Amino acid sequence: MKSSLQIRLGPHVTMTPQLQQAIRLLQLSHAELEMEISQILESNIMLEIAEDEYETTNEEEQNLDDSLEEDDIDDLEEELSDSSDLLSELEAQSNEIALETFTDIPNELAIDSEWEDIYEGTQTSNDYLNTETNDKDFLITQESAAETLQDHLRWQLELTPFNDLERAMAYAIIDAINSDGYLSTSLEEILQSLGEKIRVSTHDIKIVLNRIQQFEPLGVGARNLSECLLLQLDKLAPDTPWLKEAKFITRKYLRLLGTHDYAQLTKQMKLTGEELREVINLIQSLNPRPGAPYESSQTTYVTPDAFVKKVNGQWKVELNQEILPKLRINTYYVNLMSQVNNPDEYNSLKNHLTEARWFLKSLDSRQETLLRVAICIVKRQSGFLEYGEEAMKPLVLHDVARELEMHESTVSRVTTHKYLHTPRGIFELKYFFSSHVGTAGGGEFSSTAIRAMIKKLIALENTEKPLSDSKIASLLSERGIDVARRTVAKYREAMVIPPSNERKRLA
After folding, report:
1. pLDDT-derived band at 192, boundaries 50, 70, 90
2. Cα–Cα 20 to 30 A to 120, which of 39, 177, 481, 490?
3. What DSSP string describes 391-443?
4. Within a 10 A sphere around the Cβ of 451, how many other Cβ atoms?
5. pLDDT for the residue 247
6. Alpha helices in 44-124 (DSSP H)
7. Residue 329 pLDDT more than 50?
8. Are the C-beta atoms of 437 and 401 separated by less than 8 Å?
9. Three-class secondary structure of residue 346 per DSSP
10. How far apart are CA 144 and CA 299, in angstroms?
11. Distance CA 411, CA 396 (A)
């Protein structure tokens, strides 16, 4: 076989470190951007946080201009002006880089440029947020070491009189209890885990388990749902109405209760519908997951990147100016450049200054792009702000990209992990995007709005005769929204809403 040589030719574009940095800034979340700023403040002496308010003098500005050779300034500005073209080429090839990232970068920033200088007239969060709102509720992230279920049980164990052997068994049992509060390991497996040195039987372990099942929360240490509910029922006063019937159903007919087969339950228990309802209410007052309150779930506080409020009947978007430090060029080191005689030291300072000015311009571009995208989204989804999810319109990345003359990848980057504070809550910008579903009239309807309608229909349904997926599809069709039964089922499952047979309740 004759070997052949193939040469593949294509355009080759090299991304400068500065351009890579700017693209990275665009996609960073607030927390990640704070870390990035912290790192560059440590590595670049030309950048500092503006802790005091003052304006640079004309002499200081002249010193800055004199500290850079004219050729160096020209090179920097040329690189900035060419960056937009470079991005366009890259987007066309890989759909990775934004067209608009650097199109509106100012030619020069003041030495001590600050965010309020760039975005004039922008109010801070404190200016417009309701005074009753505690900023710390969402502007800070806190970490707390919450007590786990095992910690709570071990604490009770230390207060309970056990001998050393019983204590060893108790610790093994507690370690085998899962986050829901159930004993997820058999007694035989617990016995094996104790080792040969501890000579006990499964009967001994069961005795210790019975004592642990008296701990708080009630129902902890149960081996199944029936046992969990019975442990809680046993703690109720003997004269509790319908206690005997509730225990009987829990022991023998829990499956019928789970499938909402009330007709069979009524027949087996020989109760009227009203009496059965009372029994079920008692059972439903119990906690099927006693360990849930102790789950180690870390509360995450979201920091909004922008705010939207209504001013004179118009929705206005403003960036959150308080989440980022105010950066400026350090004039001390700029002035120092004119006094340095060592070429190496001068070049080092000059490189730091170039890097600092590029970073400020890139940061400016990021905020500008974020604001433009947020404004576009709010304009498209003003119905949601006015009336809620049912008024959400279909919106995809391409729609915003086309309107703003950006690439879709730019919109994707700037809407990921960026949050908008609205009168209806705080939402990620990606929340406002949704696919469309065709209507009978040839129009389009947002999938988010359809899900909201399904949720509303289910909330208003007769619990004795819940709406089936087919019926919901029929009701939507009456509103001009043609969706298949399987589509309704998909949306319902996505909202973690059970099917109609599991939603059935006694009136």
Report:
1. confident
2. 39
3. GPPPB-HHHHHHHHT--HHHHHHHHTT-EEEETTEEEEGGGG-B-EEEBTTS-
4. 21
5. 93
6. 58-67, 70-94, 115-118
7. yes
8. no
9. helix
10. 9
11. 10
Q: Residue 438 forms beta bridges with which residues? A: 444
Helix (H) and strand (E) counts for the chain?
Answer: 25, 8
Mean pLDDT of 251-263: 86
Sign of CA dihedral 492, 495, 498, 504: negative
Element (H, E) at 194: helix 187-194
Q: Taking a C-beta distance cutoff of 8 angstroms, is the pair 81, 100 a contact?
A: no
Q: Which helix (H) or strand (E) holds 311?
A: strand 306-311
Q: CA 114, CA 435: separation in Å to the nearest integer?
A: 39
Q: What is the per-residue pLDDT for 226? A: 93
Tokens of 60: 């200081």
Task: Tell me the average pLDDT across 341-357.
Answer: 89
Cβ 68 vs Cβ 333: under 8 Å: no
Give whole-number Cα distances, 170 to 223, 231, 307, 488, in Å.
Answer: 15, 18, 53, 49
pLDDT band at 319 (very low <50, low <70, confident <90, very high): very high
Question: What residues pair up with 325 in beta bridges, in sequence order?
Answer: none
Q: Give the global pTM.
A: 0.58
Q: Rounding to the nearest 10 degrees, give the CA dihedral for residues 246, 247, 251, 253.
A: -20
- The tens digit of pLDDT for each residue in 139-171 reads 333 444 567 899 999 999 999 999 989 999 999
Domains of the chain, CATH where assigned: 17-129+324-363 (no CATH), 149-294 (no CATH), 436-503 (1.10.10.60)
